[in-house]
Amino acid sequence: MKIKIPHNFLYQFLFFLSIVIPYLDIFELTISVWSFALLLSISRNYSLSLIKLIIPYILILGIAIFVGFSYDYKPYFIIRDITYLLKPVIGFLLGYQLCKRNFQNAFKLIVSTGVFIAVCHIFVILTAIFVYRAFTVADLRLHSGYFSDYEIYTVVLILFHKQFQLNYSRKKFFILLSIVGFSAFMYLARTNFIQFIILVLGLKGFLVLNKKSVAIIGSILLVAISSYFVIVSTNPRRNAEGVEGFFYKIKVAPMEPFKTKINREDYKDFNDNYRSYENIMTIRQVSRDGVVPVLLGKGLGSQIDLKQEVYLGDMKLRFISILHNGFMIVFLKSGLLGISFYLFTIFYFFNNVKSEKEIINSINLLFIGTGVFLFISNWVFLGFYNLTETKSILIGFLIAYREKYK
Fold it and tell me: Of 151, 207, 216, which Cα lies nearest the Cα of 366?
């Protein structure tokens, strides 16, 4: 029996590797693999649509470089900021290039990669439970991961498989949905649940405003608000285990990134609202130096003083250069001018023209959902700047597919 190796096996493997590597949470390894894959798959031409998305990110980096000359920052932090700010650009280009090399099996490749990640995650979950005795929500997430945007996109593609010409049999559909759906759910990530709902609403066409969509979104918001108040009324405990612990995270979620006053001496208040604390410190420390930093930021290598040491991951830090909020990191590096460019990269996803081809319309609707989700993702998870995200590769991939299919 002969084993047939696809002619584009290298590019399939590069896509698979580029999506999987960030889950190891080693940024230096991620950026090295992405850069290497980018060079191996370099393309002769790029679409105007892709260039429109990339230019604002380059302008943000350009402002940060220009402003950085006015300060005496350490070279290590300058170089690190360059790689962080370039990550979305590399991701978009890489996804675009790899789709052109994998056009015929594009969506199958996306789903199969997501299934592999899901199987690995389920194995990690079982290891966390039976080896490390991770029985609380906090412990389970600590050992098996905090979120996975890519798996949510995979679940959505499986759910709408006919629209993306995957056409699974009933049996295969339920098997794939069970594997990836269970894995995605077990991250127990509030943001991923919101992402799933938004992308589904997007593909259903309910994010394109009309009377029907307004009624449906209004009904969903009413149910969500009512459910939230039911959870609040049960008064879940902060250090509770299992479902109660998850309900507590939902209870504090609405105010967690938006509070304007945090008591640093109160551990509970500080820990539960840490993202807000970062935002407060960023705005305060950038604005205290005058109008110019507010408009142009403090450049590459700039950091925020948290006023006390904080455990972030496995490190104890007082000065940080990477924040949890995508808008705030752009504000820190390139000011309000950078924010204006950054907003364009979100509104970009709403500018889609209707097509007679169903698959193109489906991609456009998925992009609209992505645009809506990016407002939330940027506020709590850095959007495309997140060190472990792979959405940028997927978006670049879909842009190339849409252009090539046309």
Answer: 207
Could you tell me how many residues make up the chain? 406
> Residue 131, exposed/middle/buried by CB under 10 A (0-12, 13-18, 19+)?
exposed
pLDDT for the residue 258: 66
Note whether 143 and 124 are within 8 A (CB). yes
Number of H helices, E strands in the chain: 17, 2
Taking the mean position of all CA atoms in its chain, how far away is CA 61? 19
Average pLDDT, the chain: 88
Q: Rounded to an integer, what distance in angstroms lies between the CA atom of residue 121 and that of residue 189?
A: 14
Instruction: Tell me how far apart the alpha carbons of residues 55 and 388 are, in angstroms, rounded to a whole number.
Output: 22
Contact assessment for residue 271 and residue 252, using Cβ atoms and an 8 Å cutoff: no
Cα distance between residue 197 and residue 211, in whole Å: 19
Nearest one of 294, 376, 380 to 339, comparing CA atoms:
294
Whole-Å CA distances, 311 to 63, 204, 260, 268, 284: 31, 41, 22, 14, 22
Chain-centroid distance of CA 235 in Å reads: 30
Model pTM? Answer: 0.91
Nearest to 394 by CA among 192, 91, 101: 91
Tens digit of each residue's pLDDT (9 = 90 or more) over 376-400: 888 887 889 998 899 999 999 999 9
Task: Give me the mean pLDDT over the 115-140 stretch.
Answer: 90
Helix axes 106-130, 391-405, angle to 10 degrees: 160
Neighbour tally for 228: CB within 10 Å: 14
Cα separation, 314 vs 128, in Å, equals 18
> How is residue 22 written in tokens?
């960030």
- Tell me how far apart the alpha carbons of residues 98 and 395 are, in angstroms, rounded to a whole number: 12
Whole-angstrom distance, CA of residue 59 vs CA of residue 68: 14
Identify which of 283, 304, 281, 276 has the alpha carbon closest to the alpha carbon of residue 380.
276
Whether the per-residue pLDDT at 181 is higher than 80: the answer is: yes
Tokens of 191: 């943001």
Residues 6+ apart with CB under 8 A from 130: none
Alpha helices in 135-206 (DSSP H): 137-144, 149-159, 170-185, 190-203
Q: Show the tokens assigned to 344.
A: 């364009």
Report how far apart, in Å, the C-alpha atoms of 278 and of each of 140, 146, 300, 336, 389 are: 25, 19, 18, 17, 21
Model pLDDT for residues 226-248, shown as the tens digit of each residue: 877 777 777 777 666 666 666 77
